[in-house]
Design brief:
This protein has 142 residues and is α+β, with helices and mostly antiparallel strands. It has a single domain (16-139), classed as Nuclear Transport Factor 2, Chain: A (Roll). The protein is 26% helix and 28% strand. A 3-stranded antiparallel β-sheet has the order 3-4-5, with helices on one face. A hairpin with a 4-residue loop joins strand 3 (100-110) and strand 4 (115-124). The longest helix is centred in the middle third of the chain and has 18 residues, at 79-96. The radius of gyration is 20 Å and the shape is elongated. The model has no long low-confidence stretch (mean pLDDT 86).
Length: 142
């Protein structure tokens, strides 16, 4: 098939990657009764949060998927624990979430309530100018 003159002159737009997923709680749309779909930044943020909250060995056919952040809840809070959480998040991002660039991970202590606050800042590969933030609050139940 030959390329026409109009096709060589006309500028074509670059296709932007679109990521989509269902919400974690499977909410139905009130009018259409279909599952609500989230797209692009919200979808990637939800997938990355699910990755961080998944324990290693929790998925049957992918035993190395996830991070061991929940294991740190039973450690004493200190600089070593902050370094461990940073390492767990960065390893999970590099190995399993190729759609993001990790910018910053900050950890806050809430030892009075046996909890940890994790703030993850990242940008998407296809839109590196807009930083996105995920706030994760882990609390020990026992």
């Amino acid at each position: 098939m030959a390329i026409t003159r109009a096709q060589t002159i006309t500028q074509t737009q670059k296709k932007v990657d679109t990521y989509s997923d269902f919400t974690n709680n499977f909410i139905k749309h009130p009018i259409t009764n279909e599952l609500v779909v989230i797209k692009n930044e919200a979808s990637v943020a939800q997938a990355f949060k699910n990755l961080i909250l998944t324990n290693i060995g929790e998925r049957f056919f992918n035993p190395f998927f996830g991070s061991n952040i929940n294991r740190t809840l039973f450690d004493n809070f200190g600089p070593f624990m902050i370094e461990d959480i940073n390492r767990y998040v960065s390893i999970a991002a590099k190995q399993f979430e190729t759609r993001i660039n990790l910018l910053n991970v900050s950890v806050t202590d809430n030892s009075d309530n046996n909890a940890i606050g994790i703030n993850v800042v990242f940008s998407m590969i296809n839109n590196p100018t807009v930083p996105l933030t995920i706030n994760i609050f882990l609390k020990r139940v026992r």
